[in-house]
User: Fold these one by one.
Assistant:
Number 1:
Amino acid sequence: QVQLVESGGGLVQPGGSLRLSCAASGSIFSIYALGWYRQAPGKQRDLVARFSSGGSTIYADSVKGRFAISRDNAKNTVYLQMNSLKPEDTAVYYCFMLNYWGQGTQVTVSS
């Protein structure tokens, strides 16, 4: 059983930045089914960013150029750097690895 624990969410003003972290209880080395989704109130859960085979990354069009996913295999941690945040980025952000999900962390972008 893998446990994923997200952190780093919070309230930020438009244009601000946040970095989310997702710590896994097991090794993430060589795992590419790994990344972030988000779910806004009343909406479905959508992909934000993830790794894919060959080490490439995939981003939702709405976050390209603003968000960056990264990983530290030694720490079994995945990160999501979010810059130039907009009110429409407000959502609960979930980390996933294979078929496992974290509990989510709230990100609110508001002035």
Number 2:
Amino acid sequence: QVQLVESGGGLVQPGNSLKLSCKASGVSFNNYVMAWFRQAPGKEREFLASIRWSARIVNYADSVEDRFSINRDDAKNIVYLQMDSLKPEDTAVYYCASTGRAGPWDTPRLPAEYDYWGQGTQVTVSS
């Protein structure tokens, strides 16, 4: 069974950086797409970035492409989200997600396209 465990959230001042981690286990992720979403209170869950495990194809939401970066560590089965120049509006619960049913050229961005989710980690950007 696929398990995703996020870590690295916390309180950070505006303009600073934070790096989230998602430890994945349970299956071979060679054909999986891994992604990061976030959800602020009263808002829908928002796609941020994805990476195809085998081909390192990455995809970003326009709103964060210049500040966020997704990467992975194959040996540790961990996907990272590096977040720079954080703003108060980045405050949200951040979720890791994965799917094994995306086609080789698909870049899924909708929550419904992902089958597995972590429990989320809170990120608060405030002075």
